[in-house]
């Protein structure tokens, strides 16, 4: 009987050591999990910043493309206005020259007002 009591006491002590070891391992696991959660949160923040920077870069590139197209279009429009003004001036002058060659036979050229303010 004393031998069983000794075995039971030895098993109880070993069981206590085993439980303590399990508790220690659980505690270490919890610490590790918390560290990984913090790392995940940091990485998620970094990812959000990177995605935002990428979006801003794309928008800046698109704005530059818009600026380029607008500048080119405005320059082309100005050339068209200049050419139209010049063409109108030449047409009026030619009409006056033709009218001077044959007075009375042709009606006066129409008056066209050119708005060069644009």
UniProtKB/TrEMBL annotation:
PANTHER family: MICROTUBULE NUCLEATION FACTOR SSNA1, SJOEGREN SYNDROME NUCLEAR AUTOANTIGEN 1. Keywords: Coiled coil. The keyword DNA-binding does not apply. It comes from Micractinium conductrix. GO terms for cellular component: ciliary basal body. Signal peptide: none annotated. This is 13 kDa deflagellation-inducible isoform A. Residues 19-53 form a coiled coil. Residues 98-118 are annotated as: Disordered. It comes from the Eukaryota. The keyword Coiled coil applies.
């Amino acid at each position: 009987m004393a031998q069983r009591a000794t075995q039971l006491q030895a098993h109880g002590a070993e069981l206590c050591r085993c439980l303590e070891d399990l508790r220690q391992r659980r505690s270490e696991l919890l610490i590790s999990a918390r560290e990984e959660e913090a790392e995940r949160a940091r990485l998620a923040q970094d990812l959000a910043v990177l995605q935002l920077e990428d979006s801003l870069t794309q928008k800046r590139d698109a704005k530059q493309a818009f600026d380029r197209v607008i500048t080119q279009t405005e320059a082309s429009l100005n050339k068209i206005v200049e050419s139209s003004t010049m063409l109108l001036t030449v047409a009026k002058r030619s009409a006056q020259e033709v009218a001077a060659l044959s007075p009375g036979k042709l009606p006066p050229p129409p008056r066209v007002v050119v708005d060069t303010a644009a």
